[in-house]
Amino acid sequence: MRKLLVALGVVAVGIGASGCTSTPSGTSSTTSTSSRTAAPTTTLAAVPVTGSNNAAAQAMEAALGHGRSRPSLHYVSTSVGNGLTTTIVGDVNQTSGTQTIVVSYQGSKASMVIELDGQEAYFRGDAAAIEVLINLTARQSDAAAGQWVSVAPADSVYQSTAAALTVGSVMSELALSSPIRGEHNAIDGGRTVTEISGAWVGDGITAKDHATGELEVSKGAESLPVAFSGVMPATASAARFAENLAVSKWGEPVHVSPPSSAIPLATILKSTTTTTVPVVV
Known about the structure:
It is a single chain. This protein has seven helices and 13 strands. It is α+β, with helices and mostly antiparallel strands. The chain has one domain (2-271): outer membrane lipoprotein receptor (LolB), chain A (Clam), CATH 2.50.20. A hairpin with an 8-residue loop joins strand 11 (225-232) and strand 12. It is globular, with a radius of gyration of 20 Å.
């Protein structure tokens, strides 16, 4: 999810230029695709996690560890910045997953679907979304638009394409950085959660950005992440960026069926490579 931050300025230009207003180019092939309706969070009286900053970090690691051991989960991420709203709905298990990404800008939309099945990743979407999210050139994105494209582990864009498509990779995106502290308990959606605060550092966000995050974890012997929120304040050269992510449907079946046919990314790259032939006089 955080990889989208570094592309905010480019995607605004890409979506505006393409004028696309399409809906997602594919549908999730999982059994769990509905989004979680966010309920207001009510803050209770301050209750320390255990009384030390180190304990707050331990509480976070315990919740993320319990999450990593679960067979599957559903998540909905919404980020806002630079005039764009990006929504990602994902369903993942331990080795595979699918996500639908929709980016809205000034009434226009670009969208794509990304799937991971074991070691093979696939994407299908609009040219504007492909150019920014997969980091292809405009010519390559136009050639790939509207059809399933397979991405092999040897492809340079594989790691970014396959991000947040397994339980473990989603958990890694929820981790806070030091200083980590436990602040208080709160009521979220009718249940009591513990709120843990810290620095927000990840793909496209560094410590110099002074971003902060808050992780809500459920109470109990095996706590689990419930929600994450992060804010990167505005600077002279960058707009304010905020992300909210909700996790739910732990353990519900998630089955990913790869597309019946797909064009290898290497084939598209080869077909769109321009070769300059010297002129013989």
